[in-house]
Specification:
Blueprint: H1 3-10, H2 23-32, E1 37-39, H3 47-54, H4 56-64, E2 71-77, E3 84-85, E4 95-101, H5 102-112, E5 121-127, H6 128-131, H7 135-138, E6 149-155, E7 158-163, E8 168-175, E9 178-183, H8 221-225, E10 229-233, E11 238-241, E12 246-251, E13 256-263, H9 273-283, H10 289-305, H11 327-341
Organism: Sphingomonas parva
Domain JmjC: 115-278
Protein name: Cupin-like domain-containing protein
Length: 343
């Protein structure tokens, strides 16, 4: 990163920090928050954090003591990528994914840690319950009644392009330092997003290299930076990233591990908004402008406004999916869509 660009990011405001004394205080902070916040030392007492403070090798040994004998998916980048897991010049991926046993993956890191011969190795979003025994029980955050997916992310130094997630996210740094650069949800136009279907990990990502931003090619990125925040986290620290906030994530040390929790505030049977957006691209985006204006009006009427005029004239017993959704009526919509899309 050029010195001027490093200064540009260093000048960003820091993510606010909050102090939580216990699980009840964390629950209250999460319920009340609409902005990201950092909690220093939230998971400082984890055994995994203690192992990582001794060394990366000690952290890997601790993880191996809990792993299940299953194939893990690992992404292997090119040495010249400097850990940036991104596209190649042809808009394929600049990394390859293979399945391997965790002792073999960690053995490769053991032999090459800190050397230029070791390519970037990244194990992303590994389900802690499925792939480890006892790891979650010994290293977890009490999130109360939230039904959260617990995942662990491990690897050598990496740079993950700015992206967002639909669920809320509590990310806990267990081994190594991490830098998060965040932007509010509405800044998506200024982040120059790539394809929504051809992505490194399922979400559209910013095409901007944060280590060498090309402002001539991406001039609106300066506006995004005017709204950006940054946080550098030490082992034991955690950051809350609300749903839809954009975040660029860097693993800064020779070995890094992060545990994150995803949860949504609405029932899972409501489905994924991204799927509705993708379907709309196929069904509506390329219609004549006059027809698109009509469909935009109908989306406002049925989806975004959805006020009483939609159903006031229909007997309550006959409103079907226009009534507040339940698991049953959401299932009927899903079945209808599956039949329609299979034709």
């Amino acid at each position: 990163m050029a010195e001027a660009d490093r200064d540009l990011f260093a000048a960003l405001p820091r993510v606010a920090e909050r102090t939580v004394a216990n699980a009840a205080a964390l629950d209250a902070a999460l319920r009340d928050a609409s902005q990201p916040f950092v909690v220093r030392g939230l998971v400082a007492d984890w055994p995994l954090v203690a192992a990582g403070r001794r060394s990366g090798k000690a952290a890997r040994d601790y993880l191996l003591a809990h792993h299940r004998d299953l194939p893990f998916v690992v992404s292997i980048g090119a040495p010249e990528s400097e850990g940036r897991m991104f596209y190649d010049d042809a808009m394929g991926m600049n990394f390859r994914t293979v399945s391997a046993k965790l002792p073999d993956i960690f053995g490769r890191i053991d032999r090459g840690e800190g050397t230029p011969e070791l390519p970037p190795l990244y194990l992303a979003s590994i389900d802690m319950h499925q792939f480890f025994a006892g790891l979650h029980e010994a290293n977890h955050v009490d999130l109360g009644a939230r039904s959260a997916l617990a995942s662990i992310w491990m690897g050598t130094p990496t740079r993950i392009a700015a992206h967002n997630d639909f669920p809320n996210n509590l990310a806990c740094v267990a081994v190594g330092r991490r830098r998060f650069t965040l932007f509010p949800p509405e800044q998506f136009r200024n982040l120059y997003l790539g394809p929504v279907d051809n992505t490194p990990a399922g979400r559209a990502i910013s095409m901007i290299d944060f280590h060498a931003p090309d402002f001539a090619r991406y001039p609106r990125f300066r506006e995004a930076l005017a709204h950006g925040l940054v946080a550098e986290l030490e082992p034991g620290d955690a950051i809350y990233i609300p749903s839809m906030w954009w975040h660029h994530v860097e693993g800064l040390d020779a070995f890094n591990a992060l545990v994150n929790y995803w949860w949504r505030e609405t029932p899972r049977w409501l489905g994924q908004p991204q799927e509705a957006l993708t379907h709309a691209m196929m069904a509506i985006r390329d219609l004549p402008e006059a027809e698109k204006r009509l469909w935009r009006d109908m989306f406002d009427y049925y989806v975004f406004e959805n006020d009483e005029q939609v159903t006031a004239h229909i007997p309550e017993s006959g409103r079907s999916v226009l009534a507040p959704l339940t698991a049953e009526t959401a299932g009927r919509i899903r079945a209808f869509l599956l039949r329609a899309l299979s034709r």
